Amino acid sequence: xxxxxxxxxxxxxxxxxxxxxxxxxxxxxVATFWDGAVGRATFTPKxxxxxxxxxxxxxxxxxxxxxxxxxxxxxxxxxxxxHPPRLVTASLQVQFLCPTPLGPPLELTARLTERxxxxxxxxxxxxxxxxxxxRGEVVAAPIPAHMAHQAAPSSxxxxxxx
Amino acid sequence: xxxxxxxxxxxxxxxxxxxxxxxxxxxxxVATFWDGAVGRATFTPKxxxxxxxxxxxxxxxxxxxxxxxxxxxxxxxxxxxxHPPRLVTASLQVQFLCPTPLGPPLELTARLTERxxxxxxxxxxxxxxxxxxxRGEVVAAPIPAHMAHQAAPSSxxxxxxx
Lengths: 162, 162
What we know:
The structure is a homodimer.
Chain A: E1 4-5, E2 33-34, E3 39-43, H1 58-77, E4 87-96, E5 106-116, E6 119-128, E7 131-142, H2 145-148
Antiparallel strand pairs in A: 1-2, 2-3, 3-5, 4-7, 5-6, 6-7
């Protein structure tokens, strides 16, 4: 199949994400392409996305793992990946195997590895110039009903459980 | 003791972090205050830091856990917290207990809970209006020698091990 840009397939009201939302002009611009088996993305950090001089900020790498993992989960569990559900992140793990140099494009891959009830588990890798520098795991869950209502609650509630 | 702003105590060459660097004009501006036992920070996300309408982006929350956890680790293990070492993140775990509403200030606390060889483990909590919405764990490690040399290597290397 022709790879699908998953974030552009999200329902319009859920396209505002700071990491990957196609309708958020200040978004980082993570774009996940799904080929039916693997989610792939390429991302080139900006000069300001630094941790210490010459290396990529870990929080940015975590953000890439998050958005790319959730989009891959949505595509993988969708009846039709052209209409993926909008999932949210229940948990995120990121291992920084070695420092990620700032400059070259980062290549991301993600694969669905497990279903846990209504949750989906995705493994993500970030590579630079052919070497894996980051491994991540995202547990994605259906969007809670009160988030779907598009209004902030007066106080936190609705645990992200199955 | 008067709470110390840890990121302003980092060596000048390590103050450029995109999350918390006091010399990076585009930084998010995470500021960790250390009182001798607990790291505390307050952060108010901007309107663009959204996941879906009304809620904070998970990658931003992961970034807060990262910078605040590393700074707390540095302060906690320093001989003199006025001169903290610049640590880096070896791994990061974030649990999104419930959606975090976008708007109110976020309150962060962090505590050193374990030493693993040269690594330091810190538990971080993010609260909104008195309720914990995010729990995180950061494993911080001494900055690898080749990162300290302030030049990007030609390829990734130097695993972040003890």
